[in-house]
Design goal:
By secondary structure, the chain is α/β, with parallel strands linked by helices. The chain folds into 2 domains: 119 residues, ATPase, nucleotide binding domain (Nucleotidyltransferase, domain 5, 2-Layer Sandwich); 159 residues, ATPase, nucleotide binding domain (Nucleotidyltransferase, domain 5, 2-Layer Sandwich), CATH 3.30.420.40. The chain is built from 10 helices and 12 strands. Strands 3-2-1-4-7 form a 5-stranded mixed β-sheet, with helices on both faces. It has a 5-stranded mixed β-sheet with strand order 10-9-8-11-12, sandwiched between helices. Helix 5 packs antiparallel against helix 7 and helix 6 crosses helix 7. The longest helix has 25 residues.
Length: 301
């Protein structure tokens, strides 16, 4: 089959398995709803079935190694996934469980870090010297590639930007802290704010549609969350001094350049580093597949 890798991206909403070429192109992909409330054991069974479906479509019986992008917090050396704020499965020996199920070695990486690697190699961050990737989706995460090297921190949680404590005494995050960036401006937070305004169930997708339709309540809500994100980006810029900021995830990609410009406006006003040397602000080149492609690419590195 030539040089290809298998990647798995475990998300809070959906999970995908794909065959990816050495050039970062998805050859085949299959997805399922994560449905974390059904528990990890149920998820693992369904994930294995999904993987087998892909192998059948590809006409192969196995793959020698599998890359997995998973939400943090993680311990890469020990192969652990701690209690993820968007999954709530508790502490899991993820690598050993996956290796037992798939009968293949597993390369585990934080999902946003894997996405950063893919964007640096194949996407919007190509050629950058200090690239920071930010995903705004169900949750918020990040990754960085500095001088060609992935920044992972000591155990794999080096760019967990979503849990920057941004708003003192702010809304409680899924991680248990108050005022995290994720609790204030993720897709989950946008939906929660909309529900409070409308007095009924709502989604981030609905807010986005109302934003583009020119509805004042949605525009005010998204200006508020964009300002929150811009403040966080300013903090990141003061620490990393990036030449490229790449934004991915369902919220960022779905709302597109209009929302990105709102984030950029606030970030530029709040960061001296950004005003001294304005980096490229751009949406992810690989759209919603950055983490999936990165997971597979790590098996080929």
């Amino acid at each position: 089959m030539g040089k290809h890798g298998i990647g798995i991206d475990i998300g809070g909403t959906k999970t995908a398995v794909a065959l990816v070429s050495a050039q970062g192109q998805i050859v085949d992909k299959i997805t399922m709803a994560t449905e974390p409330t059904r528990g990890f054991a149920d998820f693992l069974t369904r994930l294995h079935n999904l993987y087998q479906q892909l192998l059948t479509r590809l006409g192969v019986s196995s793959f020698p190694i599998i890359g997995v992008a998973a939400p943090g917090p993680l311990n890469l050396a020990q192969g652990l996934m701690y209690d993820s704020p968007n999954l709530h499965w508790g502490e899991i020996p993820l690598v050993s469980q996956l290796e037992k199920t798939f009968k293949a070695p597993i390369i585990l990486q934080n999902d946003a870090t894997a996405a950063a690697y893919a964007e640096y190699r194949f996407g919007a961050g190509k050629g950058s010297q200090c690239m920071v990737y930010i995903t705004i989706s169900t949750g918020i995460g990040g990754g960085a590639v500095i001088a060609g090297r992935l920044f992972t921190g000591s155990i794999g949680n080096g760019a967990e930007f979503g849990h920057i404590p941004l708003v003192p005494n702010g809304p409680v995050c899924g991680c248990g802290q108050a005022g995290c960036w994720e609790a204030c401006a993720s897709g989950t937070a946008i939906a929660r704010k909309a529900e409070k305004l409308l007095g009924r169930k709502a989604s981030a997708r609905e807010v986005g549609a109302a934003f583009f339709a020119g509805e004042g309540w949605a525009q005010e809500l998204l200006v508020e969350t964009a300002n929150c994100s811009g403040q966080a980006v300013a903090i990141i810029a003061q620490n990393f001094d990036p030449d490229c900021l790449v934004f991915g995830g369902g919220v960022a990609v779905g709302l597109g350049t209009a929302y990105l410009e709102l984030i950029k406006k606030r970030a530029m006003a709040a960061s001296a580093n950004l005003r001294l040397a304005e980096p490229k602000f751009t949406l992810a080149g690989l759209k919603g597949d950055s983490a999936l492609v990165g997971a597979a690419a790590l098996t080929l590195a």
